[in-house]
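Give me the fold.
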Amino acid sequence: MYNLMISAGEASGDAHAAHAIAELQQHYPTITTFGMGAGELQATGTELIVDCRDLAVIGFVDVLLNYHKFLQRLKKLRTVMRERKPDILILVDFPDFNLKLAETAKDLGIPVMFYVSPTVWAWRPKRIHRIGKLVDHMAVLFPFEVPYYERENIPVTYTGNPLVDDVACDLTQPEALASVGLSLDKPTVALLPGSRPGELKRHLPVMLETAHILTTRHPGIQFVMPRAATLSEQDVASHLESAAVNLKVIEGNTHTVLRAADAVICASGTATLETALIGTPMVVIYKLSSLNYQLMSRLIKIRDIALVNIVAGYRIVPELIQDDANAENIGIQLSALLTNQQLADTQRKNFTMVREKLGDGGASRKVAEVIKQLLEKTV
């Protein structure tokens, strides 16, 4: 019976890992899995040694402030790895933490697979040399990532993006509106502030301020927000107490909410790809603490930060970053999407191109196959 250790440090990584493990369990029904993750991995039967939900921080400064917490979790996982000696270590995203875990695996002779590439193409490109020393196989989501690893002779498999399979909503827009209890005849805007408490704190206030502006420009407009599993009701409620707009908060059901919406204000991240796959026009925003922004802006080497724009190869949706992400600017861009059908349709047309670039589906199955091959080499 194979024994797998998994380390997924964020909500998206937890979901990607869970789907890959579910595929793997079809080949090996008696396989045991343990490590770091959240609810979705736990639902596969994975034993959570560490729950990643309390590690959701953003930027260098936040990591430093929480350094002791990270170190504590890392030490716990390293201890368990030494005790249980898994047949393979599967790392999912969360690179700075996970590569430290890979060092221990290397010392113990445990094969390492890394799923979801660190953004070596955007910043800190020299990390790839460390990856080459510690990782036995990379499984990457985007085709443009493959050459980076091939140039370093690091075994790599392009799996496509699991969102192609995972993002689905068979409802029509009226059906989706009815499903989440919204009016069928009012313009609808979805707010996606991000899945981390820090993102919520920085994005939701300006989104609510934007919503207030939009209510004066678009009478009857309604707002809806899907609450990520990584955010508590209290996390969200604390921001709504003084809000000047009525926001309907839905637990989960992100894809239904996206289908119900006419437009989305979306925090940069995986959610931009989810929104594109559903086909809803969007404005992308992102805010960091002032110090984090100064540090990141010096290190990042790419023009666009939204994944949907990076995959497209050029800017197909507006990005408003840091000081530009103010209520007036967001409101102008959002109003344009609500009133200019041609503008909205152009985004939808470009989303079709993005979908084609994300692969033909089956990413979780392909990842499971890579893991299977690595496991069989250990026999």
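The CA atoms of residues 172 and 212 lie 28 Å apart.
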